[in-house]
């Protein structure tokens, strides 16, 4: 029996490969320090869990969600949160919809918008979902290099005119995975003008907007003038409230893009368990995750300061769960990541997995299972120093 040929267009899922590598090391008895996948290691705040229990005991949540785009209480809370957080007005009836996590929206917007021969402008390095789903929908990918010399922002002026004219979608992700870079409102305004000029829909992935440090506050692209003409923004509660397993997020912005995505998804799933929607609404309205963010910051400082003391040149990110670290000269990102695993028992993700321009870096996550106060991160730095300190001298 022959599978669909579209599956031949995509590489193995990056995190699946990492999971297999991790499993082998554990099976071999390695005391693994896992700095790979950005899955929050702290529990969901207890008030959110309590709200879920309360909502799950309400039989009204036990049936299908037959609403237009998501449980109304949830979408109304999303609109209020957006106004309070960004100063942007969102109509919950036409400009917002529920997602089963932001990955759900990021993948399915390709299927809703891309026809064979259409182009997506995709950051490189970048989250693999953007390009993979463009290819599966029959489209073509044009990469936008994210270079350190440009603050890991795409150079919009360098995008070929023919590619811009053919593009249906442009994906932007700030705060950025994997680089940890942030974008200014000036950049967002430039991107909106570019997208309006070429009639491109911008998919703004802001899964990390609430994971910030040192007083930095991430903006929304929808704050830019004219953004609602071209922008749909994808949010997730996964990183903000340690809710990755809950699969809950939302999309807001241009009503035509929201409607297109909702039309597709209405034929693919039956939305989320409404009790989760109600717990998520409670989280947005009432809960902060400051304790977890303080722990991430402590880990970030231990990791970056420790690596720099070994001779690395690593910048402290203002946001996200990630440290984007250059590998020593003479190594590819894959070779260096394998060496860290085999000789130090430290698991990181090679930057090449995020695209051609990710080579030369590894991504280290601040979500470290088993770490209570930065001690496992400090141990990772010690192991790296014991084995490899001479590489950066």
What's this, in brief?
This protein is an alpha/beta fold. Helix content is 38%, strand content 14%.
List keywords for this structure.
single chain, 393 residues, alpha/beta, Aspartate Aminotransferase, domain 1, Aspartate Aminotransferase, domain 2, seven-stranded mixed sheet, three-stranded antiparallel sheet, globular
Order of neighbouring strands in the sheet with most strands: 2-8-7-6-5-3-4
Structural class: alpha/beta
Overall shape: it is globular
- Top-tier CATH class of the largest domain: Alpha Beta
| CATH topology description of the largest domain | Aspartate Aminotransferase, domain 2
Q: How large is the count of helical segments?
A: 12
SSE string, helices as H and strands as E = HEHHEHEHEHEHEEEHHHEHEEEH
The domain count comes to 2
CATH architecture of the largest domain: 3-Layer(aba) Sandwich
Main sheet summary: 7 strands, mixed
Number of strands: 12
Low-confidence stretches: none
Mean pLDDT: 95
Radius of gyration: 21 Å
The share of residues in helices is 25-40%
Task: Give the strand content.
Answer: 5-15%
The CATH H-level superfamily of the largest domain is Type I PLP-dependent aspartate aminotransferase-like (Major domain)
Q: What is the end-to-end distance?
A: 56 Å
């Amino acid at each position: 029996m022959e599978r669909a040929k579209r599956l031949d267009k995509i590489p193995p899922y990056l995190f699946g490969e990492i999971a297999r590598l991790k499993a082998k090391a554990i099976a071999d008895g390695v005391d693994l320090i896992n700095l790979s996948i950005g899955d929050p290691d702290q529990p969901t705040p207890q008030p959110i869990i309590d709200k879920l229990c309360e909502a799950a005991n309400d039989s009204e949540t036990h049936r299908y969600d037959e609403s237009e785009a998501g449980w109304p209480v949830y979408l109304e809370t999303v609109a209020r949160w957006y106004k309070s957080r960004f100063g942007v007005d969102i109509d919950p009836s036409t400009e917002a919809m529920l997602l089963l996590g932001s990955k759900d929206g990021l993948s399915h917007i390709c299927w809703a918008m891309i026809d064979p021969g259409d182009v997506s402008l995709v950051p490189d390095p970048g989250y693999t979902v953007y390009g993979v789903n463009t290819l599966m929908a029959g489209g073509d990918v044009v990469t936008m290099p994210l270079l350190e010399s440009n603050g890991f922002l795409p150079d919009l002026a360098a995008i070929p005119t023919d590619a811009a004219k053919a593009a249906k979608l442009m994906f932007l992700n700030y705060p950025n995975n994997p680089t940890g870079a942030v974008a200014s409102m000036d950049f967002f305004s430039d991107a909106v003008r570019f997208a309006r000029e070429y009639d491109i829909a911008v998919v703004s992935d802001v899964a990390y907007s609430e994971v910030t440090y040192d007083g930095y506050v991430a903006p929304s692209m929808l704050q830019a003038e004219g953004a609602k003409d071209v922008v749909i923004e994808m949010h997730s509660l996964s990183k903000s409230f340690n809710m990755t397993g809950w699969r809950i997020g939302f999309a807001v912005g241009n009503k035509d893009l929201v409607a297109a995505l909702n039309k597709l998804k209405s034929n693919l799933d039956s939305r989320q368990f409404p009790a989760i929607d109600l717990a998520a609404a409670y989280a947005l309205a009432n809960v902060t995750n400051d304790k977890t963010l303080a722990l991430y910051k402590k880990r970030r400082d231990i990791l970056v300061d420790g690596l720099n003391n070994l001779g690395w040149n690593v910048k402290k990110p203002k946001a996200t769960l990630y440290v984007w670290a250059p590998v020593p000269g003479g190594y590819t990102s894959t070779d260096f990541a394998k060496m860290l695993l085999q000789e130090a028992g430290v698991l990181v993700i090679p930057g090449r997995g995020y695209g051609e321009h990710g080579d030369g870096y590894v991504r280290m996550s601040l979500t470290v299972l088993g770490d209570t106060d930065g001690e496992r991160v400090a141990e990772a730095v010690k192991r790296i120093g014991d084995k490899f300190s001479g590489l950066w001298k």
